# Entry
Amino acid sequence: MQQLAISGYDERMGKRSEVEDHVVFITGASSGIGAACALAFARGGARLLLSARRVERLEAMEVELLQAGAAAVHCFHLDVQNRSAVERAIADLSQEWRAIDVLVNNAGLSRGLDKLWEGKPQDWEEMIETNIKGMLWVARAVVSGMVVRGRGHVVNLGSTAQDLAYPGGAVYCGTKAAVKLINDGLRQDLMGTPVRVTSIDPGMVETEFSEVRFHGDAARAAKVYQNITPLTADDVADAVVWAVTRPAHVNIAHVLMTTIDQANSLMFNRRT
Ligand code: NAP
# Structure
């Protein structure tokens, strides 16, 4: 059985690497952490399978990704909330693209920061449909092939919010708690196969996340990152690549990571 070839961290960044020519599928690659992962895997010479709803953004990234070293780039529209669209999208891939080595199950969002009894049902539905069910639809469509081929790595995007809820975030935090347990359950289901499962769990990362949460209110979103040094999307992508490039017998179950200015989802060091 062929496995992802492995080497150390410095080598990983310095040469065409162990992910060279491996098919890396990233959901929600049009922005933030997903886009940063695309660039990081491009630098390793991977073949990038990128999806999002804003497919025009993906297409606009293609040239940069190829210049960065991607062996090939294939972009397609996908709303992960739509189960049949997910199944169709994977089934319709050509054989070479369907042989996915790494799935970065990243598409996700928060909506609103309201007290629970004032929360908008539509916001809740969107978070649950995307963060839990969307993640499941994609995993279901992709992991079966990994098991058959005897190779693969699933990376799910969790959050510090999975361990400790914060005010106004009950539903978002609940979705990430679900991701945590689904990640752990999947890892158990895959025992006896060489397929690995990792949850990357960041704290605050400056991306479009807050703007999406506040339904486009950029001024309110900017305040989230005021007087603090947040993680960058590149910091998270670095952890994703690190987890994927460990030796084949090493499974990184969780990576809990925050900026030095954050202790957990409630405690921040703001320089006021
Ligand atoms: P972002 O910049 O807003 O990116 C979110 C990505 O998800 C976009 O590419 C978006 O693409 C995609 N997406 C959202 N809904 C989708 C859907 N229904 N179908 C397909 N794609 C969808 O936010 P981010 O910070 O990079 O977030 C990425 C992941 O990290 C999420 O799972 C988030 O929960 C997690 N996370 C973020 C933070 C943080 O502080 N930023 C912390 C911990 C965990 P389209 O809109 O084009 O579809």
